[in-house]
Amino acid sequence: MSIRTVPTLQDLVIQNVLCNEAWPIPNLEYLPRVLTLQLYKEALMGGHMEMVKKMVLSCPLACLPVDYLLKTRDVKALKTLLNGLDLLISQNIYPRKWKLKAIDFREVNQDSPNEWSRAPVGACSQEATSPKEREKCSQRAVKPRLKIFIDFDLDKVFQRFLGSLREWVEERKGVVRIYCQKLQIGGFYLKLSKFLRTLPLYYVRELEVNAQHWTREIMEHFCFVLIEMRNLCILHLSDLSPQVFTGRSINRWYSHRFSLQLRKVNKLRELYVNNVFFLCGALHKILL
């Protein structure tokens, strides 16, 4: 004899809401946070497009955590969310009227729902150096901005899930922006360098670089990107094989070039190095 699982009151509420998409949704602002988050999850994973659109427009949360989408890599559920966000973005509403300001794909502590708010809002003061640039920045600030928080592995953005997200963000440049606290860079660096430049690199705290088969051109380009990560705290650098370049002059060039840029990253506290040939015998000079 099988034991039947009795649905909880929360399950019954969610089931009732999702089964009647034509009905007005309940006032989400008065629902417990746990119930609200579960309702969004069930609506997204179940492909309830019309319900998601309504819920996005009336979202009572400033930041909506959707880490389960990244775990499952469910492209259909992702597109359901993006279609709902498109409706929100298209609304002719002053940005301060929006309650939903960010979508978080990271694994975050549910007890700290406002963790996302520590991210730079527009970073105009950091990015704009001349009066002309500050003027452009102030003009951009008038536009509605939606933040996407995600830890990116650039080598995986060609996969369907991350590729769909990347393309959606690029098509809405100036309205939606990706923030990466942890970033991984590998063999597809040059192909994605343009996309990398669209990210607010000052927000990156941890960087992992697998530089296998990198050329001198890639390394030189990466040095300029590195100094823009002025809040970088942790750097993993690996697999610059000595089989690629063996000349002493080239080794010295790499060591000198890298040391100049690394010294400009003032907040760097942890450096992990594995099989980086041009640092052999020179690392102590760089760290001085």
UniProtKB/TrEMBL annotation:
Keywords: Leucine-rich repeat, Repeat. InterPro entries: LRRC14/PRAME. The keyword Repeat applies. GO terms for cellular component: cytoplasm. It comes from the Eukaryota. This is Uncharacterized protein.
